[in-house]
Specification:
Helix content: 25-40%
Protein name: Glycosyltransferase family 4 protein
EC number: 2.4.-.-
Keywords: Glycosyltransferase, Transferase
CATH architecture of the largest domain: 3-Layer(aba) Sandwich
Strand order of the largest sheet: 3-4-2-1-7-8-9-10
Structural class: alpha/beta
Oligomer: single chain
Pfam family, one: Glycos_transf_1
Number of helices: 14
GO molecular function, one term: glycosyltransferase activity
CATH class of the largest domain: Alpha Beta
CATH superfamily of the largest domain: Glycogen Phosphorylase B
């Protein structure tokens, strides 16, 4: 199959959309499919055997490190016409995706639109009053797709309530070769917890929409130390508010896997996660997980079995959950075991195979003229 991916974000950006597209390209290529990526620049023009077409981009207002592609419809039309894809996969369509779906429809190519970014929640966090307009734009784009894929049941319900048709569920995989309990590093723990502290960690983008300032609520829990992995515009604010915390910056590969597995408790603070991949990575790493009872985590965390959920509106909920785990080793162990069991078999290969067999095939034109 020939698959063109129009991605709102791609490497070298590090975020949920870019990482999902990266895994998608790797697995599709490994399975023998021919893949093309159209994405904002700058960046490499090939990845894992797939050609990457880079379009001119501008910085996102208030988030200069995030490039937004200018919708070059002539370029997109030429690229897609030459590639002649069987399916156009729109990864978190917004600006570039809107142009991509228009071109695909004109060319008569089936489309799959993957909803992955809560744009309305993002706008609210930055105090932009555009909820109605954002949802109208989302509905307009996704209503033109042959199928919209939501990453969680909560998000699927949101989309349907907003009037988006043809919504189906497609989750995310996790790299079980990379994220494993045996990545736990005694050397790293000695460095981060010289007095035997329990390590309470967050991994992800340090940005307002992730509600990372809630990490300050964890300061001063006896016998613990906060560990922050990631980078973003909120980094310096957090460093000032959490002087005793360890800030490890952006980590990748085995360094990231070791950081996850060396934690005692993983926490996530974002309330607008359509999926929340870092929860899966922490679970695969054998770490007890705490997440808000909203959005994607509702599908990933069975409260009391594979992690703990707290009500986002409860100002003390996050700290209470962490304090409980800090003093209850047996509970931490039980939740860690439950998390590992939950992600067993959730490989990217399995998830992408499901995408092709269940969703791509469903939007392809049916053969005609066959004998009854």
């Amino acid at each position: 199959m020939r698959i063109a991916i129009v991605a709102e974000s791609f490497l070298p950006q590090v975020n949920g959309v870019a990482n999902t597209v990266r895994h998608l390209v790797e697995e599709l290529t490994a399975a023998g499919h021919e893949t093309l990526v159209i994405a904002p620049g700058p960046g490499d023009t090939s990845y894992h055997g797939a050609r990457v077409i880079r379009l001119r981009s501008v910085p996102l207002p208030r988030y200069a490190s995030f490039p937004v592609a200018l919708p070059h419809r002539r370029v997109i039309t030429d690229v897609l016409a030459r590639f002649a894809p069987d399916v156009v996969h729109l990864a978190s369509p917004a600006v570039l995706g809107a142009a991509g779906i228009s071109v695909a429809r004109r060319l008569g190519v089936p489309t799959i639109a993957v909803f992955q970014t809560d744009l309305a929640g993002f706008a609210r966090q930055y105090r932009i009053r555009a909820n109605t307009a954002v949802w109208a734009w989302i509905r307009r784009i996704h209503s033109r797709a042959d199928r919209t894929l939501a990453p969680s049941s909560h998000t699927a319900a949101q989309l349907r309530a907003a009037g988006v048709p043809r919504v189906a569920l497609w989750g995310r995989g996790v790299d079980l070769d990379l994220f494993r309990p045996d990545r736990r590093s005694d050397e790293l723990r000695r460095r981060l917890a010289p007095n035997g502290e329990l390590l309470i960690g967050y991994v992800g983008r340090l940005a307002m929409e992730k509600r990372v300032r809630r990490l300050t609520e964890l300061a001063g829990i006896p016998g613990t130390r906060v560990v922050v992995v990631g980078d973003g515009p909120e980094r310096e604010t957090l460093r000032d508010a959490l002087p005793a915390a360890a800030f490890l910056g952006m980590l990748r590969g085995e360094e990231l896997a070791a950081a996850y597995a060396s934690l005692d408790v993983f926490v996530h603070t974002g309330e607008h996660e359509t999926f929340c991949q870092t929860v899966q990575e922490a679970q695969a790493s054998g770490v007890a997980t705490v997440a808000p009872a909203m959005g994607g985590p509702l599908d990933l965390v069975a409260d009391g079995k594979s992690g703990l959920l707290y009500a986002p509106s409860d100002r003390d909920g996050l700290r209470r959950a962490v304090e409980l785990l800090a003093r209850d080793h047996a509970l931490r162990s039980r939740l860690a075991t439950g998390g590992v069991a939950r992600v067993a078999g959730r490989t990217w290969g399995h998830v992408v195979d499901d995408l092709v067999a269940k969703h791509y095939v469903a939007v392809l034109p049916r053969p005609t003229g066959l004998a009854a």
